[in-house]
């Protein structure tokens, strides 16, 4: 079993950052393996990802709590995969913390993936790579 957690600080308004991250359509902008994400009714989301060179398509769940600025997601399957992303205020902007739980034990790859996700969020927002990304405050 593995539980992983990483954080970074982004120079932007915490509420604007949460709104950007909570939009299902933006998931492929910051999750490197994700190719598409579309709402599928209620809390369901249809995802297409490329993992280890293999196309994976399926249903997952995705919930948001705007008051707590928290996203939660997961999927059924043998890896008991779920995650949480939380945005809080920080000096100079917002802190983003991502937590992941999985039964898959490949800690180094998972740590690298979480760090890459946070780095991509920071690049998108601070570098303006995505026109829909919130701008620094």
Shape: globular
**Beta-strand fraction estimate:** 35-45%
Give the CATH superfamily: START domain
* Structure summary, number of beta strands: 7
Termini separation (Å)?
Answer: 39 Å
Query: Into which percent range does the helicity of residues fall?
Result: 10-25%
CATH fold type: Alpha-D-Glucose-1,6-Bisphosphate, Chain A, domain 4
Please write the CATH class name.
Alpha Beta
Which second-level CATH architecture applies?
2-Layer Sandwich
Count of DSSP-assigned helices: 3
Taken together, the total number of domains comes to: 1
Largest sheet: 7 strands, antiparallel
With strands numbered from the N-terminus, the spatial order across the biggest sheet is: 1-7-6-5-4-3-2
Mean pLDDT: 87
Low-pLDDT stretches: none
């Amino acid at each position: 079993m593995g539980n992983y957690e990483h954080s970074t600080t982004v120079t932007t308004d915490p509420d604007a950052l949460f709104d950007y991250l909570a939009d299902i359509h933006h998931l492929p902008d910051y999750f490197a393996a994700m190719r598409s994400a579309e709402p599928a009714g209620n809390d369901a989301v249809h995802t297409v990802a490329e993992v280890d060179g293999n196309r994976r398509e399926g249903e997952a769940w995705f919930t948001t709590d705007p008051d707590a600025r928290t996203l939660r997601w997961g999927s059924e399957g043998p890896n008991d995969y779920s995650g949480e992303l939380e945005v809080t205020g920080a000096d100079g902007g917002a802190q983003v913390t991502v937590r992941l739980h999985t039964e898959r034990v490949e800690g180094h790859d998972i740590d690298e993936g979480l760090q890459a996700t946070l780095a991509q969020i920071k690049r998108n927002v601070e570098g303006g790579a995505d026109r829909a990304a919130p701008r620094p405050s």
